[in-house]
Amino acid sequence: MDSIIQGFSQAFWLIVSGDRELCRIILLSLGVSGGALALAALLGLPVAALTGLKRFPLRGAVVSLLQTGMGLPPVVVGLLLYMLLSRQGPLGFLELLYTPGAMILAQTILALPIVASLAGAAIMGVDPAVKQAAVTLGATPRQQSFTVIREAGYGIMAAIIAAAGRVMAEVGAVLMVGGNIAGYTRVMTTTIALETDKGNFELAIALGVILLALSLVISLLLRVVQQWGKTEAALIPWP
Length: 239
Description:
By secondary structure, the chain is an all-alpha fold. Helices cover 78% and strands 0% of the residues.
């Protein structure tokens, strides 16, 4: 019991003192996850708009594929990327293995189906009366699409926040392609695993507290966005 109390007290001191190693790990984690989330949104939102607004052959298959991708095992993603990025792999010439770039790529693959699937579902869930009203007002097809997407704005934001929660907690894939190199590819989740194995609980606990705090913030943001969406929908007077 004394060792647990001592570990928490030392972890608290690392946090309040702004330990350099702790800050470096946190900043790298935020940079990797933020980059992955930006790429996932950049690539996933057009796919969401396409599946949510257009009817085309194999649309159902694409939606099903995206939904399946939401449950991708991280270690499988890490394995496939490792094979592609290794020196013997087809993308080995890029020399991305064991770099932050490979970690961003792994997290992007995990986050993209979440953004595309949930945002697409939000767009498909918009009341058809919204588009009909835009048509009645003489909106062009592009303006009609933008109107529907704007109406699904809170759902799209919720999709991005949900993807942020996924990438922040990721450990398997980033460990396999990042290598957990001190000062270069060591992020919060991989450091917690490593330091726990080494018995250095103070740094692991400190990072665990920070990670839990970030998870709480993400959950609160998701809840706030969902409540805003419900409130706005309730206030819209439909004919």
